[in-house]
């Protein structure tokens, strides 16, 4: 386990600034700790020998006042250091979060991790950096500075004590490394078991209805106790080792302080040391060990923070950098789209999703693409949307290669209705306007009417201004499909207004709908296709009447149909 | 929430004692050392110091050992309490309505993490304050014995730094905490939109706008966090100031007392170093106080569950109706809240033994509510459900479930092996029986390919395909109670949900073949293969609007015929007043 991920320092300016500020604060704090120890030793030693000793009454009062000054300075420094550290943490998190989001949204291709996992990583996951940046890193800096400074001061005052400290101090990191090295393998092994046992309760609570149906709900209570007890035993096994290592370190530090105390006590007894020096050494000795022990105590914060940073960098370093957009002028009007021997194999897959497809999409005609699940119907649309590029063969638009065209400009011509359209927690109007944010209200209403969505909107409390909730949860699947169709109508209208012939892509428009909704969606979809270049992907044969051409994709692996849902999830997740 | 820990009180008390001992040993170590040095300066005989020398070493060892014991004992006690709390929460959930209240997976997750938060509270929130109280009192007592004003000053400093300041910081942090939560959830929503909606956003060129929304949410969260940083910084500064000023005050008082001749150097050194070391005692308290708010909210949610009354009550016996085999539902009414519309509004349903009925209808028509009543997940508000002449509300839910079993909506696949998932329905079933039922649902090949009955299915059955998951749940339902003289009534709630059409039809075929001759209530929104059932009941808005066989319903106009027509899509739907789709002029 590296205490500090070099990628974090290299790539994040906020971390570099933070380390410098922290080091400065650490230096100042070390100075104040030393000053306070020196003042206290001087006062305590001086008060008893007042008059006879080296310290005058006025000077004593001044020294006491200096303690107050040090206290105020330490308070100010603590405020500043803590504020700065937490602010840096917020900055570092924001920085990483933005880079993460930009990276994963740069291509429409799926990220290596699931969306839910990414959201967790970008919010709660990054919070692990709070403790890491604001507590652990400063402690790391202090652990490097304070022991050396203390050692230097003690060495000037009393070299024998300095020798004792210098000899015992390295034992702490040494033992820390030994214990850590020994326990790491064991801890890793335990971790999976712990996660699994910890997850059992969630699994059981989620499965409660299923358990109830099989009359296992009561029996499961005994099992929960048993599994939680197993969890306790496993956890305690791991913790005992961790606590034991803390115990060793603490014992080492305390005994070292005790040795110093006794050693200076004895030398005082024989008059080889004065009280003020002895007190100074006594006050400073624990300060030499404290930061090192604190670093050990913040081990958790460090592992969690480093793990979070590692997960972020794993995502950032995964996948190719997004390709720069190729400026290419699009053929005007409504060119022919031609597939010649097109194949597609997703990265990391051995079998192709699509192989040897020859297809001509003549302007103004509708092509129906059918075939069993997993035959690559949805992948064909992905190619047309430029979510993926063919791995073999080529797709041409007029006389140009599709890959040479500017993807954004090309997509402006496409009206796509996916199988599960995604609606946003915004107003209905804004959801319809997704592709044309400046479209006037009249255009939105017209699109909704054409998409058979006008009555859906009319039934909502605030009409077009109604917010749809997370993922459009206010609407049923069929209603969502109609809003998505309105989106497509608006896009078609915008493209035609710009003098371009739009391409309509429909993916299983009615596959998951109640019969009532299916009828409305079917009517709107057919209306959208009239006179336009279109591709309908459908499992059922009910779309043959609206199609001019039919392409049937063969089963890619006879005898082992892949689930279409799985395929869709692959590039839509 | 602390009340939950009462059964483990002795362990927690031991933990607190060990914690107090550890902290006290740490403070005492410095104090004794101070005495040792101050006394040694007067150059007494060595024997006068030997006790102190031994004591410092003993204290050093004591501190380490006590700290170790404290950690082990409190963690052990907290984990034991966690087991108690989990069992209590689970037992209560099992008796309250298991489906609807906790329908959202998010709520379940939060409840589970609330349960697990008790562990955190007990470790950080219970023993450290108790240990601090004991040790703090000790330190104040020592100081008071040496110099009364010094003791009073230390007491005041510790109270301020250990109690008042953490509580004030926690109170001041409450409003920003809420803003932080709001900013965080705004960020999650915009982020989820950008990630889940990525294909739609990219296809419609709206990704830059979505990214801008994410960054605006991020900027807001960062702004709130930076402002909170100031507040936390002030807390840290105030804490340091209190410690420093207490030391200064002690020095002031001590020096004055020495000058007045009340105090000598040795007690002065002890007094000053006590006040220097004492603030170690209250160091863990601000963290404990900061957690109070979160813990209180978690506790409120937890007790919300623990205090929920059961959803099904056993009613007093009603005379059984003799000679009435099969299922008889009469005038069944259910609603979810007093002012809600009826989810089921006077439903009648008859099912003779061995008959199979489909309950169909649009989503939200009450189909699943009917299944929930049959599963005894909830009580009817009025009307009756009779099984073989016995009113099911007069029996224990588990007794009813012996005779009615099946597949609830979204059946759960547990993170275990195929074998364990199946044996849930019949503990102790032999491998032979398991393979038999897997063959009946045509999952034997898939399970063999996945590695046999001991194959791990992953959390929520993620290593299985959607079709395999549904088949596994179906196999489980078939296995339940199948060894009795009469197999129980099967209720299958949307057994083909979330499947693509291919898989759906294949699962449905196998389902119908495997349930031939058994009593079956099939709840579905899907109208395929219903010709194989004895009866079809159409439920719309909680009422039965049509019933009969598939052929009968198809022969007369109504919901079923029109829904069937559109779902098998022979004729596109025409709607008036708008340009119409239909025939496109050119043929294929």
UniProtKB/TrEMBL annotation, chain A:
Keywords: ATP-binding, Membrane, Nucleotide-binding, Transmembrane, Transmembrane helix. Residues 337-572 form the ABC transporter domain. Residues 20-304 form the ABC transmembrane type-1 domain. It is found in: Cell membrane. It comes from the Bacteria. The chain crosses the membrane at residues 20-40, 60-77, 136-154, 160-181, 241-262. InterPro entries: AAA+_ATPase (IPR003593), ABC1_TM_dom (IPR011527), ABC1_TM_sf (IPR036640), ABC_transporter-like_ATP-bd (IPR003439), ABC_transporter-like_CS (IPR017871), ABC_transptr_CydD (IPR014216), P-loop_NTPase (IPR027417), Type_1_exporter (IPR039421). This is Thiol reductant ABC exporter subunit CydD. The gene is cydD.
UniProtKB/TrEMBL annotation, chain B:
Residues 565-588 are annotated as: Disordered. Gene3D superfamilies: ABC transporter type 1, transmembrane domain, P-loop containing nucleotide triphosphate hydrolases. It is found in: Cell membrane. It comes from the Bacteria. InterPro entries: AAA+_ATPase (IPR003593), ABC1_TM_dom (IPR011527), ABC1_TM_sf (IPR036640), ABC_CydC/D (IPR014223), ABC_transporter-like_ATP-bd (IPR003439), ABC_transporter-like_CS (IPR017871), P-loop_NTPase (IPR027417), Type_1_exporter (IPR039421). Residues 13-294 form the ABC transmembrane type-1 domain. Residues 327-566 form the ABC transporter domain. The chain crosses the membrane at residues 12-40, 46-66, 130-148, 154-175, 231-256, 262-283. It is a multi-pass membrane protein. Its main location: membrane. Keywords: ATP-binding, Membrane, Nucleotide-binding, Transmembrane, Transmembrane helix. PANTHER family: ATP-BINDING CASSETTE SUB-FAMILY B, ATP-BINDING CASSETTE SUB-FAMILY B MEMBER 6. This is Thiol reductant ABC exporter subunit CydC. The lineage of its organism: Bacteria, Bacillati, Actinomycetota, Actinomycetes, Pseudonocardiales.
């Amino acid at each position: 386990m590296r205490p500090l991920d070099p990628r974090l320092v290299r790539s994040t300016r906020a971390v570099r600034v933070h380390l410098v500020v922290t080091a400065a604060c650490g230096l100042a704090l070390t100075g104040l700790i030393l000053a306070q120890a020196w003042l206290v030793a001087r006062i305590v030693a001086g008060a008893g020998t007042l008059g006879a000793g080296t310290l005058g009454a006025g000077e004593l009062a001044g020294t006491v006042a200096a303690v107050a000054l040090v206290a105020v300075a330490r308070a100010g420094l603590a405020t500043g250091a803590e504020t700065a550290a937490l602010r840096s943490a917020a900055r570092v998190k924001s920085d990483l979060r933005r880079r993460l989001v930009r990276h994963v949204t740069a291509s429409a291709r799926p990220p290596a991790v699931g969306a839910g996992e990414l959201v967790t990583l970008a919010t709660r996951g990054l919070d692990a950096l709070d403790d890491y940046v604001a507590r652990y890193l400063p402690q790391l800096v202090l652990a490097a500075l304070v022991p050396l400074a203390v050692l230097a001061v003690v060495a000037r005052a009393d070299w024998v004590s300095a020798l004792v400290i210098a000899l015992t101090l390295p034992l702490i990191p040494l033992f820390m490394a030994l214990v850590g090295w020994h326990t790491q393998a064991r801890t890793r092994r335990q971790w999976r078991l712990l996660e699994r046992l910890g997850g059992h309760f969630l699994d059981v609570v989620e499965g409660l209805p299923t358990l109830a149906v099989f009359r296992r709900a009561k029996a499961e209570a005994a099992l929960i106790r048993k599994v939680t007890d197993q969890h306790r035993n496993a956890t305690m096994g791991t913790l005992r080792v961790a606590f034991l290592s803390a115990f060793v370190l603490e014992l080492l530090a305390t005994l070292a302080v005790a040795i110093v105390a006794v050693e200076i006590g004895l030398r005082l007894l024989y008059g080889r040391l004065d009280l003020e020096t002895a007190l100074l050494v006594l006050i400073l000795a624990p300060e030499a060990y404290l930061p090192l022990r604190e670093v050990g105590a913040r081990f958790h914060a460090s592992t969690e923070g480093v793990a979070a940073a590692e997960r972020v960098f794993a995502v950032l370093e995964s996948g190719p950098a997004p390709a720069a957009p190729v400026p290419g002028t699009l053929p005007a009007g409504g060119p022919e789209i031609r597939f010649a021997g097109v194949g597609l194999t997703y990265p990391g897959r051995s079998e192709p999703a699509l192989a040897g497809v020859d297809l001509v999409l003549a302007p103004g005609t509708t092509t129906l693409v059918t075939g069993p699940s997993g035959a690559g119907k949805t992948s064909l649309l992905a190619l047309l949307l430029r979510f993926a590029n063919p791995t073999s063969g080529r797709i041409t638009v007029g006389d140009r290669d599709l890959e040479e065209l500017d993807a954004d400009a090309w997509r402006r011509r496409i009206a796509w209705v996916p199988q599960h359209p995604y609606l946003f927690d915004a107003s209905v109007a804004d959801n319809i306007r997704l592709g044309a944010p400046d479209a006037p209200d009249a255009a939105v209403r017209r699109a909704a009417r054409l998409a058979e969505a006008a009555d859906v909107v009319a039934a909502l409390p605030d009409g077009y201004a109604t917010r749809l909730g997370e993922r459009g949860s206010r609407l049923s699947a069929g209603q969502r499909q109609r809003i998505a169709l309105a989106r497509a109508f608006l896009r078609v209208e915008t493209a035609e207004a710009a003098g371009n012939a739009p391409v309509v892509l429909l993916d299983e428009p009615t596959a998951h709908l109640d019969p009532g909704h299916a009828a409305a969606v079917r009517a709107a979809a057919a209306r959208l296709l009239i006179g336009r270049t279109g591709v309908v992907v459908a499992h059922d044969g009910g779309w043959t009447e609206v199609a001019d051409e039919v392409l049937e994709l063969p089963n890619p692996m006879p005898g082992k149909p892949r689930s279409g849902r799985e395929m869709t999830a692959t590039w839509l997740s | 929430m602390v009340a939950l820990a009462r059964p483990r009180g002795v362990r927690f008390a031991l933990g607190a004692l060990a914690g107090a001992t550890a902290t006290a040993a740490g403070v005492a170590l410095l104090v004794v050392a101070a005495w040792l040095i101050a006394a040694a300066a007067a150059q007494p005989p060595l024997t006068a110091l030997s006790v102190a020398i031994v004591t410092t070493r003993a204290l050093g060892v004591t501190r380490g050992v006590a700290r170790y014991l404290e950690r082990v004992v409190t963690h052990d006690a907290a984990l034991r309490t966690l087991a108690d709390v989990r069992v209590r929460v689970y037992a209560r959930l099992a008796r309250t309505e298991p489906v609807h209240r906790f329908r959202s997976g998010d709520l379940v997750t939060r409840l589970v993490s609330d349960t697990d938060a008790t562990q955190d509270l007990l470790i950080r929130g219970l023993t450290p304050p108790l240990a601090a109280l004991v040790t703090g009192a000790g330190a104040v007592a020592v100081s008071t014995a040496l110099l009364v004003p010094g003791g009073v000053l230390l007491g005041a400093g510790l109270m301020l730094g250990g109690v008042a300041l953490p509580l004030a910081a926690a109170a001041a942090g409450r409003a920003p905490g809420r803003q932080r939560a709001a900013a965080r959830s705004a960020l999650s929503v915009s982020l989820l939109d950008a990630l889940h909606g990525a294909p739609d956003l990219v296809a419609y060129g709206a990704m830059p706008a979505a990214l801008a929304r994410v960054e605006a949410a991020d900027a807001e969260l960062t702004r709130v966090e930076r402002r909170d940083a100031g507040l936390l910084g002030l807390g840290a500064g105030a804490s340091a100031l209190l410690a420093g000023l207490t030391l200064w005050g002690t020095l002031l008082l001590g020096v004055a007392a020495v000058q007045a001749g009340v105090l000598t150097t040795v007690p002065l050194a002890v007094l000053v170093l006590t006040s220097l070391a004492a603030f170690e005692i209250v160091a863990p308290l601000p963290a404990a106080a900061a957690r109070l708010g979160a813990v209180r909210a978690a506790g409120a949610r937890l007790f919300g569950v623990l205090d929920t009354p059961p959803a099904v009550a056993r009613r007093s016996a009603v005379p059984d109706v003799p000679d009435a085999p099969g299922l008889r539902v009469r005038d069944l009414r259910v609603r979810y809240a007093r002012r809600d519309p009826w989810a089921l509004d006077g439903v009648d349903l008859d099912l003779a033994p061995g008959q199979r009925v489909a309950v169909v209808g649009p989503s939200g028509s009450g189909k699943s509510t009917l299944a929930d009543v049959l599963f005894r997940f909830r009580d009817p508000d009025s009307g009756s459900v009779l099984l073989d002449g016995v009113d099911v509300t007069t029996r224990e839910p588990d007794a009813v479930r012996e005779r009615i079993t099946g597949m609830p909506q979204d059946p759960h696949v547990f993170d275990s092996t195929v074998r364990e998932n199946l044996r849930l329905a019949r503990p102790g079933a032999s491998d032979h029986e398991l393979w038999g039922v897997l063959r009946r649902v045509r999952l034997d090949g898939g399970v063999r390919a996945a590695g046999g009955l001991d194959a791990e299915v992953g959390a929520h059955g993620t290593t299985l395909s959607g079709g395999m998951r549904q088949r596994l749940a179906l196999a489980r339902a078939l296995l339940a109670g199948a060894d009795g003289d009469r197999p129980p009534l099967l209720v299958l709630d949307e057994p083909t949900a979330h499947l693509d059409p291919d898989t759906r039809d294949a699962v449905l075929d196998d389902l119908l073949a495997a349930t031939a001759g058994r009593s079956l209530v099939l709840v579905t929104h899907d109208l395929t293969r219903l010709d194989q059932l004895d009866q079809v009941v159409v439920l719309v808005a909680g009422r039965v609007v049509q019933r009969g066989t598939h052929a009968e319903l198809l022969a007369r106009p109504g919901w079923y015929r029109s829904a069937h027509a559109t779902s098998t899509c022979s004729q596109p739907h025409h709607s008036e007043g708008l340009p119409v789709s239909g025939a496109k002029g050119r043929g294929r």
